[in-house]
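We emphasize that the prediction below concerns an isolated chain of 571 residues; any contacts that depend on oligomerization or on bound cofactors are therefore not represented. The input was used exactly as deposited, without trimming of termini.
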Amino acid sequence: MPGRSTPTKISPLLLLLRVNAVHSWRKLLSVRRQSRLLTGIISFFVIGYLVLAFALFFYGMKFIAKFPGLGAALTERLLYTLFAFLFALLLLSNLVIAYTNLFRNRETAFLLSLPVSTQTIFNWKFIESTILASWAFLFLIAPLLLAFGLVRDVPWHFYPLTVLLIGLFIILPGVFGSALAIGIGRHLDRKSFQLVLVVFAVVLLAFVAFWWKTNPVDDDLLDKRTLEALDRLLAKTRFTMFPFLPSYWLSSSLLQWAEGITGNALFFAGVLLSHTLFFGSIAFTRFGNIFYDTASAVQSRAGGAFKLKFFRKETNSRSPGWLEKIAEKIPLLQPDTRAIAVKDLRMFWRDTTQWGQSVMFFGLLGAYIINLRNFTHQLTSPFWIHAVAFLNLGACAFNLASVTTRFVFPQFSLEGRRLWIVGMSPMGLPRIVMTKYWLASTLSLVVTLGLVTLSCWLLKMPWDDVAFFGAVITVMTFALNGLATGLGVLFPNVKETNPNKIVSGFGGTLCFVLSSVYIIASLALLVLAGGGYHSHSDWVVVSLVAFLLQSALIGWLPMKLAMKQLKNFEA
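Result of the prediction step, given as a token string:
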């Protein structure tokens, strides 16, 4: 009828984007209203990290720039290497998150039942997965690129160009990660595909362990030709300058624009733009049907688990499995506790994204520690031996903090709406939470204690120092697991089934921030106690006692508050 306005049609994808953006904003406002103190603490630490990281990058690059010729060459190689490794990490992160978001997500299953095209559903989940996988990357490189621009005294238009190129760059690992997730989900139950994955993993570990070796440099070469010596020291990073890598296009465009060579910079920016548009258009127009077929295959698969057929034989479903048989041999373990532990282990193993990320976290650290033997002969000073040992301890602790935040924190929330059933059981919620805590602490202690002991042994440290670092990582393991378990109970999210979204919430962010502060404070106290900076034994005793008290507080207090909340929950 004339004069009557017709309703405008909104694209389903835009509607999903708007609804989720409004929902996220309201959730952020509700968290701020509920706990202004904790919100202020997290904001303080986030701003503190940005300021501290900027200061470290700025003064580090400024110091390197004082060396004519050498500073520019070293900075450029560092940028190439940084973006190449970040691209690989973004690819892995997108693979894991996209697999969970596409095939292990209740919202995805709900959307597939609606009259919405599968391409629209994939596009929304692709955008969501890319944002979840890339926000930490953006948070990391922002102070670095700002410091680089100030040291090089770049013009103002360098910064908007950088934002544009970074936005184009993060799309490519998102597309490749989603494609890999679809391929893995589609062919995961095939024996040949599983065999290829296992062989590829073994070959990759062998490649990292035996190929990545340091190249010794003669003293004469160091005295005469500095650039040649630097190039030989960084010989293993030459692959980052391969012209067909997206990280090479990004790094070259930024470096050329900073130098004022706008023609070459625009060329590499155009190469990055063309590849992003090409692969992005394929994903946004052709991946929908493939995603639907893969989702149907994954949901119809029994359990959806990663099970190696050539390592599995048919057994009676009523007979206990090998995991139950091992658990039965553990003394002083009650049947109900054993059942909960076995259930959690089975759930962890059936979710490929869970144990896959754990292997990735500690596998990279293990490959680095194994390669310590290639340059331990160059460490002759006790100072540098202890410095490397403390750095290894810090790296292992931060890996542990990432694992506990990623896997231990959401364990309570993943029980979901079944918590009332678990709470009515004779075992009770407090014992169930304590079982989860001891299970996570024991399993993570096996890995962390082994890595730290191996590191000290490769550094040829005396056995009393090995015992010292082993005791330290043991205390830190129980403290970090207590913090993650306790905060997971204090800040539950039982409505969410995606662990990535649970961790990305307020409680997960607080857990990682407190874990990082605890690790930094512990390392400072341990260096003061065991680093030989004070000859007075009183300082050593005070530092060690402060470390133990701090560890007991960070591990005991959240668990105490969690147990109190669980009792109120059961009531």
